[in-house]
Amino acid sequence: MEVKDLTPNLVWNFFNQVTQIPRxxxxxxxxxxxxxxxxKAYSLExxxxxxxxxxxxxxxxxxxxxxxxxxxxxxxxxxxxxxxDVQHDFxxxxxxxxxxxxxxxxxxxxxxxxxxxxxxxxxxxxxxxxIEHGNLECLFTTDEETxxxxxxxxxxxxxxxSVLVNLDTEEEGQFYIGxxxxxxxxxxxxxxxxxxxxxxxxxxxxxxxxNGGHSGSEIDxxxxxxxxxxxxxxxxxxxxxxxALAEIKGGNLSNAIxxxxxxxxxxxxxxxxxxxxxxxxxxxxxxxxxxxxxxxxAILIETTDAPVSCIDKKTSENLLNALYxxxxxxxxxxxxxxxxxxxxxxxxxxxxxxxxxxxxxTSQRSSTNSLKVDIANMVTSVFKLAGATIQATDGYPxxxxxxxxxxxKVSEKIYEDLFGEAPEVKAIHAGLECGLFLEKYPHLDxxxxxxTILGAHSPEERIEIASVEKWWKFLIELLxxxxxx
Length: 485
Known about the structure:
The protein has 11 helices and 25 strands. 30% of the residues lie in helices and 28% in strands. The protein folds into 2 domains: 3-180 and 398-480, Zn peptidases (Aminopeptidase, 3-Layer(aba) Sandwich); 183-392, Alpha-Beta Plaits, CATH 3.30.70.360. The strands form 7 sheets. It has a 6-stranded mixed beta sheet, with helices on one face. It has a 5-stranded antiparallel beta sheet with strand order 18-19-20-9-21, with helices on one face. Strands 4-5-25-24 form a 4-stranded antiparallel beta sheet. Helix 5 runs antiparallel to helix 6.
């Protein structure tokens, strides 16, 4: 059986189509074009704004004209991560999907179910002629994954609905009514090229095999961070030997916990065996630490040719000290909502640029704005002490929970009537666009829901087939029961 043949067929057919359309963040032209063509094919009213957000409208079915206008919202971009041994061009190649024991996955890449399944559900509703609903506005936003910029730039007056259902959370049976705000801190180190020292043992060290994951919703799982593990090895060597660092890189996106990292470095040749011993000791320690959550972690070392030049000693020392000192993970838990991470930070990526610059990207999240600022300042101070230049993004606001939400009460009753059990009502540590919508449209009554997706933002991303069917049944019933205006 192929993905397009799964049940509910209309949803999976559209999901299959979406997986064939390249849609990296900031390069969503193809999926936007697809949505415009869809609206034309079904004779639906469609608008776009300067941020390329797409709004498709559908009139109420007979007898539902007095229902409040409902906005179904999803984002069109996807996180583009792949395993190093996979050849895939996210700007041009379709995803290769397959079914595995009740789950849909992609071969060696992210699946884009975050938020391709939200797109698919909205399109299925728009395309169907046998679903009862009031007036609908389906909003498809751009560039959610790299800063929620589509939602931030949403055109004034674009929306007329009063109820919004965000289709971008990843646990079926859970309704979200709040989320964290976030921002990024970028630290740039400028280095000089130094002559490669003689009589050095040069090696390429790689951290691999980690699961990675979403830096918001999975930050509390204790997943290994490849950048931190690599730094731990290099910093330890630096304490005992005159380490020369020629290259360092790790991670990719600010909202993903880094799965892989590598460096080219050298120490005096007579200390070669010590470098290998250090690595074996660290690998044993890390495997013991991560045996439950990241059992496949690997640290590999291989001899390499001496590089033409290396990073100057002062900068490499400052860089490694800062990377080691930089906090990563959960900083504090909420006292108001049990089990909710309140504040966290992610040491996301290390990238070398052509102009003798090394850029370290970190991301901070918190459901309390003052604590978001505080952890961003903490990270800033670490890199300032190391002599880096700091750039801070504007960030995005959180979404304060409203436990008295009318759409929440309706949704809870529908879910319990359908499935004989109460849904969980939660807030999420990940960033959702709802906070930005609420700033522009303070009257909106909102919830967020979705099917079960695991491993988002990593090549282990997968969506549970059975959960999609339950979620779809809930959405159909919700459409019938939106309160009157």
